[in-house]
Amino acid sequence: MAEIIVTTTENIPGQKYEIIGEVFGLTTQSKNVVRNIGAGLKNIVGGEIKDYTKMLIEARDVAIDRLRQNATDLGADAVVMMRFDSGSIGTDMQSVAAYGTAVRFIE
């Protein structure tokens, strides 16, 4: 799975490919109640909420892993035009999606 090339560009230099189709990886995560209280206090004084930053980094990594798995399941060699999207669900959950176009290399 780790061999799957994932790029935000449309073209991969030196490669010709055929399009397989859309692939995605999705995760929704939240922090525990104690950390949410700490984040609420940090919100009063301002500054980076490092626990949430860490959560989003982890969510991004999970979303990319799931994107790669989806591409592998379809027999892809790479994913082009990869993008992220994220959004809140309620007040304490964050959803992260990685999506792109799966391709198969041709000679």
From TrEMBL:
The lineage of its organism: Bacteria, Bacillati, Bacillota, Bacilli, Lactobacillales. This is UPF0145 protein HC026_10055. Belongs to the UPF0145 family. InterPro entries: UPF0145_dom_sf (IPR035439), UPF0145_YbjQ-like (IPR002765).
